[in-house]
């Protein structure tokens, strides 16, 4: 089992500081890291080595807690303890901070893009979750008759074709469209469903909340209870039908979505799906589980733990979908010299895993699924 997770390399990403979080760009070619040094670093490969391509140092005044790439890969969002979220625009190898989102009263703990790329979620120590909407990139125009080209008069009175293109400022504007106050304590993490505009949040109040849009506002549509202490992180499976949560109670819980009138007879409230815990992974971790990542390519679950270890779980063959079982397939006891804060699967290369730690390092690993699983 120990040979199923092989070290490829390490980089001193944030020397003399914690490295808090990692995020791969959608193409899997760049990795963003952030830390207590207030900086974001962008990593890429040259041959077999990982090198720092860019350092983003001007956006925040305090620790950068999390980063997230937009689905198009052209923007990077960063959440900071200075109570702001910065939006960085990629221009070749350079990044420019084009927008700073303000409004949270305390540290912003997490940020995440919706799959459409037009919505952004943030959460904070102020117990709230905010949903932000990007400026519209289109303009709807109606004219008569509708089957003829639209033309307008130019300055000299001639009729010319009409074109509309949003300005750069319009593209980079974001508006808060909802403030959600469903949690009673610090909100640690937000994550979007992989294909729907369904948002999940994890909190110090030991719960997970799910939200959806309703009549131009956002509402809490489900509360998942079961953890006995802080819920630190969340991850959807590739289908979006299951959600994994990890906690200070040293367990991982797998929740399954049940639609109304489901064959299993799970009760639902109105038209909203119900979420039920179908599996609990306990006894594997000796300290707080800070992060969990569900590989969209292989289905492997990786955890980052306060005992300095990385673990990988794989669902067993012929596992019952209603009561799934998972096996521990990799356990690296000293993956880092201090707490492991984050694990992140590469979205394009199966088995490529990155991790970061309080030791300031980023490590790259190759996971090989054991035979028979």
Tags for this model:
four-stranded antiparallel beta sheet, mainly beta, Methylamine Dehydrogenase, Chain H, 1% helix, 1 helix, 30 strands, 373 residues
How would you characterize the overall build of this protein?
- The protein has 373 residues and is mainly beta.
- It has one domain (2-137, 163-367): Methylamine Dehydrogenase, Chain H.
- The chain has one helix and 30 strands.
- Strands 1-30-29-28 form a four-stranded antiparallel sheet, with no helix packed on it.
- A hairpin with a 4-residue loop joins strand 29 (352-357) and strand 30 (362-367).
- The chain starts with a strand and ends in a 6-residue tail after the last strand.
- The model is unreliable at 137-143, 152-157 and 162-170 (pLDDT under 50).
Order of the strands making up the biggest sheet: 1-30-29-28
N/C terminus separation: 12 Å
Q: Decide which structural class fits the backbone.
A: mainly beta
* Number of extended strands: 30
How much helicity do the residues have? under 10%
Q: Do you know the CATH architecture?
A: 7 Propeller
- Quick check: average pLDDT? 91
Number of helices: 1
Low-confidence stretches: 137-143, 152-157, 162-170
The amount of beta strand, in percent, is over 45%
The fourth-level CATH homologous superfamily is: YVTN repeat-like/Quinoprotein amine dehydrogenase
CATH class: Mainly Beta
Looking at the structure, the CATH topology is: Methylamine Dehydrogenase, Chain H
Oligomer classification: single chain
Question: What overall geometry do the principal axes of the alpha carbons give?
Answer: globular
Number of domains: 1
Q: Over all CA atoms, what is the radius of gyration?
A: 22 Å
How would you characterize the largest beta sheet? 4 strands, antiparallel
């Amino acid at each position: 089992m120990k040979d199923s997770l092989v070290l490829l390399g390490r980089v001193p990403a944030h020397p003399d500081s914690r490295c808090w979080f990692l995020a791969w760009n959608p193409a899997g070619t760049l990795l963003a890291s952030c830390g207590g040094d207030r900086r974001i670093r962008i990593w890429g490969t040259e041959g077999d080595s990982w090198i720092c391509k860019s350092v983003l140092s001007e956006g925040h005044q305090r620790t950068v807690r999390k980063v997230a790439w937009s689905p198009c890969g052209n923007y990077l969002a960063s959440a900071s303890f200075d109570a702001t979220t910065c939006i960085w625009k990629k221009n070749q190898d350079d990044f420019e901070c084009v927008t700073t989102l303000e409004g949270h009263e305390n540290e912003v703990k997490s940020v995440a893009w919706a799959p459409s790329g037009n919505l952004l979620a943030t959460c904070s120590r102020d117990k709230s979750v905010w949903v932000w909407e990007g400026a519209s990139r289109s303009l709807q125009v109606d004219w008569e008759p509708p089957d003829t080209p639209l033309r307008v008069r130019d300055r000299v009175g001639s009729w010319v074709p009409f074109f509309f293109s949003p300005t750069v400022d319009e593209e980079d504007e974001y508006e808060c469209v909802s403030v959600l106050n469903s949690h009673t304590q610090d909100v640690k993490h937000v994550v979007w469903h992989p294909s729907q505009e369904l948002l999940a949040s994890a909190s110090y109040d030991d719960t997970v909340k799910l939200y959806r849009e309703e009549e131009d506002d956002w509402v809490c549509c489900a509360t998942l209870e079961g953890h006995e202490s802080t819920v630190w992180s969340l991850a959807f499976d590739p289908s979006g039908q299951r959600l994994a949560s990890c906690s200070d109670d040293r367990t991982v819980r797998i929740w399954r979505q049940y639609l109304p009138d489901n064959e299993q007879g799970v009760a639902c409230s109105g038209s909203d799906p119900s979420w039920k815990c179908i599996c609990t992974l306990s006894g594997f971790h000796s300290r707080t589980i800070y992060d969990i990542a569900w590989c969209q390519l292989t289905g492997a679950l990786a955890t980052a733990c306060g005992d300095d270890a990385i673990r990988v779980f794989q669902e067993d063959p012929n596992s019952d979908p209603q009561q799934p079982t998972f096996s521990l397939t990799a356990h690296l006891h000293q993956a880092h010299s201090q707490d492991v804060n984050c694990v992140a699967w590469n979205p394009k290369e199966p088995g490529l895993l990155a991790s970061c730690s309080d030791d300031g390092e980023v490590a790259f690993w190759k996971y090989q699924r054991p035979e028979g699983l």
